[in-house]
Fold this protein.
Amino acid sequence: MPDFTLNHNILKTSLITDTQMAGQMSTKTSFESPLCNIKVLEVAQGVAGPHCGRLMAAMGAEVIKVELPSLGDWSRSIGPFLKEDNTSETSALFLYNNTNKQSITIDWRTHKGKKLLAEMVEEADIIITDWDVETRERHSLPKRIFGNPDHNAIHLSITPFGLTGPYARYKSTPIIQLALGGYLYLTGEENREPLMLPGYQPDYLAGLNGHNAVQIALWDREKTGQGSFLDMSIIETLVTLHQFTFEMYTYEGYVRKRHGNLWQKESSMANYGITTIPCSDGHICFGVATEDQWERLCLMLDREDLLSNPAFETRNDRRNQATYLDKVITDWVGNKTRHEVLLETSDIWGLPTSPVLSLDEIMDDTQFKSRDFFNNVEHPIAGNAIHPSFPFVSKYITPKLAPAPTLGQHNHLYKRLRAQND
């Protein structure tokens, strides 16, 4: 998942009213959105919780984002900014993760603010928070926040380590999560230091899993009439991604290591064919993994002799010859461009290959264009920006995509908040 994919080109700035925004938020079909009768109270900042709220808002939920007065969500202060003269409302990170939402301001750290928030909790179907153990203790925020025991709301808590366990009080950032989750250990060259994935990948994954957990809890509520408290750990969402890593260790005792652009060479899963090769205009990835693909690769390279050579008979044999085989493919590629290699390998020989694309190339790719994946969103202050849509196409469901709110933009819609600000 990308840290953000907003286009930084500012085309124009236009002010829009709440009524105009509501018009933009309407679906393109006459079918109701799946979550159209669900109210979400999002008391979370940054990426994980807001990304979860973004997904629910896209499916039609009314998502009310609760921000601290003056300060707002801390991601508002994270660049890049689409306008340097108003950074609090033009953070690319904030704009991406908060589409389709309302924004109200409540200082829930005060007695009066807690009372206001408690009243709004009573009206919500879903509450999203990111209060860790220390925050909950410091501000007297119980697990079932302010909870009426008969209230059937679903409370999703997303924190780095969950609310229990020896790490529950620790602070974290993406690099900490990736390190403790085992992904730094797997990323980079074998004899070099581990490398970090860019951006907020663990948080995006947690937001996605949080959204899935809420859907299951809603389904359960339909059956039982009961709400749920969902204690989600960002680090645990990372660990669930380990597939071959778990299998190699559990069944064969191998600890998978870093191998740069190549597949691992330990265990029965050792193989050659997953590699990255230079072209005249960049790099192209090969994903050759099966025996029939290996045979077609040899035929394409005009190296049928490799098929009868005992030194390349098994996957382990070929992995041990990775340096030589990389050179064979590199010599075959020669001065070809990525596109020329792709046409021959994928179109003619049916091999899984792909050019390594930069973000500008992704946004100009015909595959994404054909599915209308990128859309223009006009924000009242930030102006026009390009946002990614959602990775599915449906006849009956059209996800909503409307601009993120300005800080406290919707306070006037709630009488109790007007009284707070008087």
User: Anything to note?
Assistant: The longest strand covers residues 62-67. Confidence is low (pLDDT under 50) at residues 1-29. Residues 155 and 417 are 23 Å apart (CA to CA).
